[in-house]
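Researcher: Sequence recovery benchmark, item below. Answer with residues only.
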């Protein structure tokens, strides 16, 4: 039986399912070949390797209580991610992890939770939404605000439609560029924050997406009254080793893979505003 405790040695996993989400995004379901998966916490990530190509950090996007399958949603943008997206059922990949800290699920109990996601940023917060809905009575108002570039790039579309039918979660979706048949909001996702219903004095905000989107979303949430220490963001910068040894993901005094990837806005505000840091 393979020992997952060595963080630098990848375990071998097999692709058991591949789903084409959008034009350049796939979701892969993996299972370990000769190891027992320990599970993960929402917000953590794996280092996935395509043998002979390279390795890349990919956040978890599946159900946190499912210890049989490892689920990752990947956009084909570079050599490794393109190779991951082209894998077929039965192909093998290397898996190191889980790494990093988690979204503040215990801290959010009994409070309003507002989730703001942009583009592929919906994938790392999907486990949060699963957890919130599974334990719905333990939270106040739950809100998802999601923005995509256009209707064709909306992730998990059928799942979002299902979430909208629930009476205990508010879901709003916007696109930057609408098509002729789009009937929803048009504009950046930060514009939805002013319309959302939550108690800023007793709310936790979870934000994930491109860095520029997160900067503006964090500012809008702070302007709405949520303290910066209650605004959580997930960073992803050039992670290579996963354990803070190589220095590739350094952001000022922080190492994203070791100290994050989840940070509060009061820790990130100055760092994210510094050019070329």
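Model:
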């Amino acid at each position: 039986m393979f020992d997952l405790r060595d963080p630098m040695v990848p375990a071998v996993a097999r692709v058991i399912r591949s789903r084409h989400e959008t034009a350049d995004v796939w979701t892969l379901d993996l299972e370990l070949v000769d190891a027992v998966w320990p599970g993960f916490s929402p917000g953590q990530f794996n280092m996935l390797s395509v043998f002979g190509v390279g390795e890349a950090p990919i956040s978890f996007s599946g159900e946190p209580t499912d210890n049989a399958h490892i689920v990752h949603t990947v956009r084909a943008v570079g050599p490794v991610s393109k190779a991951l997206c082209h894998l077929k059922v039965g192909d093998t990949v290397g898996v190191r992890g889980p790494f990093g800290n988690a979204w503040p699920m215990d801290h959010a109990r009994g409070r309003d939770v507002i989730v703001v996601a942009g583009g592929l940023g919906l994938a790392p917060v999907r486990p949060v939404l699963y957890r919130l809905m599974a334990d719905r009575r333990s939270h106040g108002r739950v809100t998802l605000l999601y923005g995509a570039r256009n209707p064709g790039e909306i992730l998990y579309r059928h799942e979002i439609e299902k979430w909208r039918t629930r009476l205990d979660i508010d879901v709003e979706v916007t696109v930057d560029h609408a098509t002729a048949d789009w009937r929803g909001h048009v504009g950046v996702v930060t514009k939805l924050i002013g319309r959302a219903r939550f108690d800023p004095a007793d709310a936790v905000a979870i934000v994930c997406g491109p860095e520029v989107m997160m900067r503006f979303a964090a500012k809008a949430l702070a302007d709405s009254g949520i303290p910066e220490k209650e605004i959580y963001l997930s960073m992803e910068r050039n992670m290579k080793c996963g354990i803070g040894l190589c220095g590739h993901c350094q952001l000022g005094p922080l190492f994203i893979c070791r100290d994050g990837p989840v940070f509060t806005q009061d820790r990130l505000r100055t760092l994210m505003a510094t050019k070329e840091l």
